[in-house]
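User: Sequence recovery, please. Input:
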């Protein structure tokens, strides 16, 4: 896997993925940014959310659950001293569908957190990770 980050100006950068996609990142105004894009540390949390959502949707589809939506909300705390690593991350999953099996949803969430999600594994080296879920029945 490869990617490239190029400085644009001030504290703005464009990130280019090896798969050909781009995203603008920018620092907060108090650090010289112009609020033109996402913060780099926010990107880490979005990557975590995407990684774990991918796992959960895949697992639930393979277990023949009638999933219609998956939303991941993440709250994180960072250290006060440099390096300001994440010290606590809580992930809340909202899974919507018809007649979802609570045990299968719980198993999918746990498998992602404990086995499949590479981002969870990496961030868990510095942060206390926790998760929970809710099911919205659309029947």
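Assistant: Recovered sequence (139 residues):
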């Amino acid at each position: 896997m490869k990617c490239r980050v190029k400085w644009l100006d001030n504290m703005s950068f464009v990130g280019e993925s090896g798969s050909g996609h781009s995203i603008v990142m920018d620092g907060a105004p108090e650090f010289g940014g112009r609020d033109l894009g996402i913060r780099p540390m926010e990107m880490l949390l979005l990557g975590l959310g995407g990684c774990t959502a991918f796992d959960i949707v895949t697992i639930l589809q393979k277990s023949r659950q009638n999933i219609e939506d998956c939303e991941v909300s993440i709250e994180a705390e960072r250290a006060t001293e440099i390096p300001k690593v994440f010290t606590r991350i809580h992930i809340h999953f909202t899974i919507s569908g018809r007649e979802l099996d609570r045990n299968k949803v719980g198993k999918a969430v746990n498998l992602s957190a404990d086995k499949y999600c590479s981002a969870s594994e990496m961030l868990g080296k510095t942060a206390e990770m926790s998760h929970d879920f809710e099911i919205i029945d659309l029947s």
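The longest strand covers residues 66-78.
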